[in-house]
Amino acid sequence: MSLLGIDIGTTHCKAGVFREDGKAVRIASRPTRTRQDGLGRYFYDPGELWETAAACIREVLREGTQDVQSIGIASMAESGLLVDSRTGTAKTAFLPWFDSRSMDQAERIGKEADPYERFRITGLRSSYKNGLAKLLWLKEQDPDILNHAVWLSASDYAAFRLTGTMATDYSLAGRTFAFDINKREWDSSWICHFGLNPDLFPAALPAGSRLGCVHSGASAETGLPPGTPVAIAGHDHVCAALAVGAVREGDMYVSAGTAETLVGILPDSELSQREYDSGLSYGLHAVQGQRFWMGGISASGGSVEWLRGLLGDDGLSYQELMGLLESGRKEPTGILYFPYLSGSGAPWPDAGARAAFVGLTKAHGKADLLQAALEGTAYELEAIRRSAEKTGCPPFTRMTTVGGGTRNRRWMQIKADVTGCLMEVPAIEEATLLGASLTAAAGCGIYSDEREAAAAVKPEAFTRYKADPERHKQYLDLYEKGYLALQPALRQFYHTY
């Protein structure tokens, strides 16, 4: 018996076949091609994105992997498109979460109601990333485009191509700024307030719910057996929690990649001023009856990639980058890097924030700049951790970490030294893919629930990074007296010039 996971990500589309114990049988990955129009706005081509996902599925479905019992689809959260409800054809390109064309619409949305009251309903603040802002932007370009249209996320679209059913899950619906996470339904009056029809949004289901089966046309395209159950597993970072076993109240894990995200699990209770003040975002978890909190660093690994491209004539190779880091100092650089190349998230949400280096001297070199970038993202990690603890979460002394960033051992040690937490990296290949497959398997009855699915996964090994007491003391001083202390002045500057 096999489980299939699909992950439609910002930089890659992936498919993976897993055994019931979480062991990977075969994984395929292909780049998600990001395009730009003549005005520099980013988009994904729907046909191209689907074909990339289908190619990954075909690649993993080789001999011995045809006994797929369920399919779970995870994706980046806020990216979406409009599909014609009559014909099923795409009416627009995919608008990626990171494309900022809907900034003005998000600002207008934010002024239409008390931000705190909207937060209590949605778990979010108004942002250009959210589906509602993107829909208003599309409406302003062409009001008729909303006729007979349905807004689908990347997961929703892939599920539709496989089954012919249009639906979404709670965790993805919750990223539109139009979904009531308390009532678990679309906020029709809020949607109508903007002159939109609530029918723009598909049915919303709990994560992992079986929404249909692979139809014959999709079977021919992908090689999947017709009739195989399909489920939308949901938000990629939330799905990955099942793979790493972060499925109980107080659990937390870190997904480290181009962007970095901390995700924790909470009881299913309404949000209060305390949660609002945290700067975190909230939603309904893939674990039924639970909620999640989330804080992100949008340019974490992205900061390293940015510097890698700048510090060599043709860009530094990864080998050269790691060589510089290993040859550099082990103690703190004393440089403060604020990693806001794409704005800042929790606990200081600010789309207008900009990156900065503070404390440079002529004695600093390439290795110092690279290390400072790693330190700056670790300071952000610490800020999010502290913010979560202020909401009533127990003190965090351990961070389970997955993602491409874990391959940088120097970075992992700096995170341990800054936060004082034990950084624990399980030997799990592709946590989001595995989490998507487990979420669907639980929803389709292969496991009794999500916790049983998570318990089936037993990593063979862990790599652990323990904080050095002296370095932690030094970093704590830099964080308190420098990184925190300079935040107000830097933000005032961002919005003055």
UniProtKB/TrEMBL annotation:
Domain Carbohydrate kinase FGGY C-terminal: from-to ranges: 252-442
Keywords associated with the record: Kinase, Transferase
SUPFAM superfamilies: Actin-like ATPase domain
Keyword Membrane included in the entry's annotation: no
Family matches, as InterPro entries: ATPase_NBD, Carb_kinase_FGGY, Carb_kinase_FGGY_CS, FGGY_C, FGGY_Carb_Kinase, FGGY_N
An MF annotation (GO) of this entry: kinase activity
Gene Ontology biological process terms in this record: carbohydrate metabolic process
All copies of domain Carbohydrate kinase FGGY N-terminal, residue ranges: 3-242
Cross-referenced PANTHER family: SUGAR KINASE, XYLULOSE KINASE
Family note: Belongs to the FGGY kinase family.
Protein name: FGGY family carbohydrate kinase
